[in-house]
Design goal:
Elements (H helix, E strand, L loop, with lengths): L6 H10 L32 E2 L1 E6 L15 H9 L4 E6 L1 H4 L8 H16 L3 E6 L39 H12 L1 H18 L5 E5 L14 H25 L6 E4 L21 E3 L2 E2 L2 H4 L10 H16 L4 E2 L1 E2 L9 H15 L2 E4 L28 E5 L1 E9 L4 E8 L3 E6 L6 E7 L1 E3 L3 E2 L5 E7 L4 E8 L1
Length: 468
């Protein structure tokens, strides 16, 4: 998550966007593509098309023996009750390995406790190796201080605009050393072997996000878009392949999530090359500089359309699914924010296999819920019927904003399709036509529920879910 970039840097990114080109080389296309496009979809081991809907879960405040103490069972119970099935869980290398070569068993147990809660409420978890402004050497979280090398370059804290700290010379040099120094490469890979080795068989674990919002060092005379493309192509791509190999020594089944630099949020296509793993997932973030600085959504600026064009170029070229790992503005009560959420959700459904909003907490600011656990204004639009798993092909999904109805169409394949709804007064009605049937035509009001659709393979099925 970031609040704002310097205006000059953003302009540089936009001016340089045309020169940023994704690298070639792609495997054969998977069987399923996104509705209305040619971006592949996530699938499970039964071939069902998967959709993830959820939020980030974090504790950035507590460390050491108190790490993750702000995350409770309630987080996952409330995610379930609002109909979500996905959580991106932030973990920190500095907590896992506070001293080089010494991994914290206590921290691993606390992560495991959180995963146990997620499994209890049927929430799939993405374990995210999170960093903000590199790590504790600069007053944040992420890469341990012992793995931070600055060559004595300066760093000036900017608490009112912390994202701008990424452009401090010391921070940029620390990223260069992380990517280039052989011993730090080995240490980062070893950290991932520990995480994957511990949680490979946990039933809640869906995947691993290799590093949050990676940045790097700008060269003299280089604009931001050009720098981002070079960093992605020359440093991030080999790093992701190294770390994917490390994960695979312990876990052969989970999905591998990897991110571009945050500059993609300005409509700049990534320069990432191919991540050579059969279960790779492209996981960009979806933030707008002006909105992060407090501005209202401006539909006429066509930022969402620009972002969608940029963010889909890579997965179309490399034939990988997309899950947006973070999104959602700080101030969701401005006049156009209802329009923003409707436009954003429609865009995400056009090409994505899922998303995780920022952030599942109780209070103000970015928090999804108020202190009583009620979804805050406009964020409540994220809680709607969807299909976590579809046994079929040729998917089409539509929503009626006036009535709240959700319509799913597909050609049935062997297996069971699942439709999930959030709790709401009156509950939901499920109508199935064509080759399918469901044993649950009415879903209850007091909790989230799942309808299961059985269909004759090869037949066309239509499911309509409406509020009662």
């Amino acid at each position: 998550m970031y609040r704002r970039l310097f205006a000059a840097l953003v302009c540089a990114a936009l001016l340089g966007a045309a020169g940023t080109v994704a690298r070639a080389g792609a495997p054969a296309a998977p069987a399923h593509t996104a509705p209305g496009g040619d971006v592949p979809r996530l699938t499970d081991d039964r071939g069902r098309v998967l959709t993830l809907r959820g939020w980030n879960v974090e504790d950035k405040v507590h460390r050491g023996d108190q790490a993750l103490s702000a995350v409770t069972e309630r987080h996952f119970r409330d995610l379930r009750d609002h109909g979500f099935n996905f959580a991106r869980l932030l973990v920190f290398w500095d907590d896992l390995e506070p001293e080089q070569g010494r991994y914290s068993e206590g921290y691993l147990r606390r992560v495991e406790r959180v995963l146990d809660w997620a499994h209890r409420y049927r929430i799939k978890v993405l374990i995210d190796a999170h960093q903000d402004v590199f790590g504790p050497a600069f007053g944040h979280r992420g890469i341990p201080a012992w793995a931070t090398r600055t060559d004595g370059l300066p760093f000036t804290p900017r608490p009112d605009d912390w994202f701008s700290e990424y452009f401090e010379p010391a921070v940029q040099r620390a990223f260069t050393h992380l990517y280039e120094d052989a011993d730090l490469r080995r240490a980062q890979a070893a950290m991932w072997r520990v995480l994957a080795g511990r949680f490979a068989h946990h039933p809640a674990v869906f995947g691993y996000d290799l590093i949050n919002e990676p940045m790097g060092e700008l060269r003299e005379g280089e604009d931001l878009a050009t720098a981002a493309g070079r960093i992605e192509a020359e440093q991030l791509t080999p790093m992701y392949n190294r770390l994917a190999d490390a994960v695979r020594t312990a876990d052969r089944d989970a999905w591998i999530f990897f991110e571009p630099t945050p500059i993609v949020g300005e409509g700049v296509p990534t320069g990432l090359g191919r991540v050579d793993d059969p279960k790779a997932v492209y996981a960009p973030h979806f933030y707008n500089t002006a909105m992060e600085a407090g501005a209202d959504y401006d539909p006429a600026a066509r930022w969402i359309e620009s972002y969608e064009a940029a963010v889909t170029a890579y997965p179309r070229r490399h034939r990988v699914p997309v899950v947006v790992g973070e999104w959602g503005p700080l101030n969701n009560t401005l006049p156009n924010m209802g329009r923003f959420y409707r436009d954003a959700l429609a865009s995400l459904e056009r090409y994505g296999s899922g998303w995780a909003g920022y952030v599942w907490c109780y209070g103000g600011g970015y928090c999804a819920l108020d202190g009583q656990g009620v979804l805050r204004p406009n964020k409540d639009l994220t809680a709607a019927p969807y299909a976590p798993a579809v046994a079929g092909t040729g998917l089409s999904e539509t929503r009626d904003p006036a009535t709240g109805a959700y319509r799913l169409g597909y050609r049935a394949a062997p297996g069971v399709t699942e439709i999930r709804v959030p709790s709401r007064p009156g509950g939901w009605r499920v109508e199935v036509s064509g080759a399918g049937r469901t044993a649950t035509p009415v879903l209850p009001a007091d909790r989230s529920a799942t309808a299961r659709v059985h269909a004759r393979p090869g037949g066309r099925v239509t499911v309509v879910v409406t509020p009662r």
